[in-house]
């Protein structure tokens, strides 16, 4: 009887995820299998280290700061771990999100303190990270300052010294190429396509325990 109840709960969870995400039922089952295989032994949630391994090895992400921020955005309940539902719903936006969903996601990654705006010092830390990794000038710091001026001029729509969510959203909707202006936090097309080819219909989904 308990097994039947567990199976029913599992099916309900998968059905709810199919309605709430951009994945069909078979794809969700494949993601659940992938999630189970990624877990450490005797655990049912992904820790930060294992999640970063996925971002690095599967999606070629290398920026430690941004990978940490992506983890925090996936971790909706802020318990420091990623459960199965967070894994599937996070990947739904990460892999197949609408422009609006990706705008919301990217800004959340960039918004360190969650106040819905990016101050100049936050922009500095985001841009410094990428510029310092690929220095093109003798004085990288000057390059960072010049880039900040350029970005703030472009995105600070109301000229208040901050890039608010509304500023970012309006700018990206006009120029979608600016979606990841503060750093890469979505998969590149090649790694995205490679990952999507791993979706195969599994024979059986391991029991889910809520």
In short:
The chain has helices at residues 2-20, 25-38, 48-59, 64-74, 84-96, 99-110, 120-133, 140-155, 165-174, 189-196; strands at 117-118, 163-164. The protein is mostly helical and 210 residues long. The protein has a two-stranded antiparallel sheet with strand order 1-2.
Features:
210 residues, mainly alpha, Recoverin, domain 1, 2 domains, two-stranded antiparallel ribbon, 10 helices, 2% strand, elongated
Report on the structure:
This protein has 210 residues and is mainly alpha-helical. The protein folds into 2 domains: 2-98 and 191-196, EF-hand (Recoverin, domain 1, Orthogonal Bundle); 101-185, Recoverin, domain 1. It contains 10 helices and 2 strands, in the order H-H-H-H-H-H-E-H-H-E-H-H. It has helices at 2-20, 25-38, 48-59, 64-74, 84-96, 99-110, 120-133, 140-155, 165-174, 189-196, and strands at residues 117-118, 163-164. It is elongated and about 55 Å long. It starts with a helix and ends in a 14-residue tail after the last helix. The relative contact order is 0.15. Pfam families: EF-hand_1 (PF00036), EF-hand_7 (PF13499). Keywords: Calcium, Metal-binding, Repeat. This is EF-hand calcium-binding domain-containing protein 1.
